[in-house]
Write a structure and sequence with these properties.
The protein is α+β, with helices and mostly antiparallel strands. It is 45% helix and 13% strand. It has a 5-stranded antiparallel β-sheet with strand order 2-3-4-6-5, covered by helices on one side. The longest helix is centred in the C-terminal third of the chain and has 22 residues.
Length: 395
């Protein structure tokens, strides 16, 4: 049987055409006036005076709605990607369960005087549900907007790193006694590295590889490490590591800082809250916060894992969440730090070879660039293993 070419050939073109068709069905071609009408479903008795795009997420579409009256109240309006979140009602269920639990636990957290922590709240729609489905079948929801806040796309100082670690530590502490059985697994297989490896193998089996040194590098990189990919899942299956409530996507720009003090005040984008290993979260937070590169120039040799920022994140995190980590948990922390960027790189290269059908892209080669960046980060982590393990021992 003939195989279709990967990464921009016929299969890639067909996938992109299919995505454009789905986008039209999903209502993503609507105008700002349509956004205002949708936002009005969550505005109560107030009128919506403006809706504009917010952030740069790769999965959902996010907007900021501003209301007349009520001192210019604002809220976040989001269209969930139904091709990623197949059961968005369960996403909302998880968000309700977590938010209620976190707000109940917050007074007992013992935050120091002057530090605030905000738990995003779901807003009700006019249909008395906490979501709205438009005429295209798109799934919309609204969440409270946290005022006097700011995000950062890239850590610049160790002090910022400590605040990022502090935010994730507070989140894990607030949810540490939340029964995972109350949460639906809204993204089955998410962060399950062996499953991503199987998907990658299936993509390879079904396509003809392009003649590219970058692709060859990625394939060799994966091949050299495939026997190690199941390290966390093996420990979980053996009962060494246990399921807890995780955020699922605690990258740096999902952490809000107080615009005046620079202190962490919230962890947002809660669509991926679900049962998992806290290692997934801390590994992903370190991946996001400690990567240093010049991706605009594709200078892959300059990608590195910043040890100073790593120490800062770990210090901030364990100052808040030390009590929920066992010695066995700590034994697998370096594996998580190494595995999470590998896993993301694996997903990027698989998506590239499949025709860019999952992650949003700005150009056809972007997922290949992303994959190489993550694999170069893994190489830097591997070179710094001794120092990273020493940092873990010191916290």
């Amino acid at each position: 049987m003939l195989k279709e070419p990967c990464g921009g050939g016929t299969a890639g073109r067909l996938d992109r055409l299919e995505r454009e068709s789905m986008a039209s069905l999903d209502g993503s071609r609507e105008s700002s006036a349509d956004w205002v009408a949708i936002a009005a479903q969550f505005a109560g008795s107030d009128s919506v005076i403006d809706v504009c795009p917010l952030g740069s997420g790769l999965i959902n579409d996010t907007f900021l709605a501003t209301l007349a009256g009520t001192a210019g109240r604002r809220f976040v309006l989001q269209r969930l990607n139904r091709h990623v979140f197949r059961q968005p009602e369960l996403v909302m269920q998880n968000l309700r369960v977590f938010s209620a639990h976190a707000r109940q636990r917050l007074p007992d957290l013992g935050l120091e005087l002057g530090r605030r922590w905000e738990v995003p709240q779901v807003l009700a729609a006019k249909n008395d549900r906490d979501y709205y489905i438009d005429e295209f079948g798109s799934f919309w929801r609204a969440i409270s907007y946290i005022d006097s806040s700011a995000t950062i796309g890239k850590l610049e100082t160790v002090a910022q790193a400590r605040e990022v670690g502090c935010a994730l530590g507070i989140f894990h502490t607030l949810s540490s006694d939340l029964d995972c059985d109350r949460l639906a697994d809204t993204l089955e297989g998410f962060h399950i590295a062996p499953a991503y490896l199987r998907q990658f193998d299936e993509v390879l089996e079904g396509c003809e590889l392009p003649h590219s040194s970058a692709v060859k590098y990625c394939l060799k990189f994966v091949g050299d490490r495939r026997d190690w990919v199941s390290v966390l899942e093996d420990a979980k299956a053996a009962g060494v590591l246990r399921l807890q409530t995780i955020h699922g996507d605690p990258k740096v720009n999902n952490i809000l800082l107080d615009a005046q003090t620079g202190q962490a005040i919230s962890l947002i984008d809660l669509d991926t809250v679900k049962p998992g290993l806290v290692h997934y979260d801390l590994g992903d937070c370190l991946r996001s916060g400690c990567k240093r590169s010049d991706s605009s120039r594709r200078e892959f040799g300059r990608v590195r894992f910043d040890l100073d920022l790593c120490r800062g994140i770990l210090q901030g995190y364990f100052a808040r969440a030390r009590a929920i980590w066992t010695e066995a948990d700590r034994d697998y922390l370096f594996d998580a730090i190494r595995l999470i960027p590998f896993e993301l790189g694996l997903r990027y290269i698989a998506d590239y070879l499949a025709g860019n059908i999952y992650f949003k892209i700005g150009h056809p080669e972007q997922n290949l660039v992303r994959a190489r960046m993550q694999f170069k980060l893994v190489e830097s982590i591997e070179r710094g293993e001794g120092e990273i393990r020493a940092a873990i021992e010191q916290i």
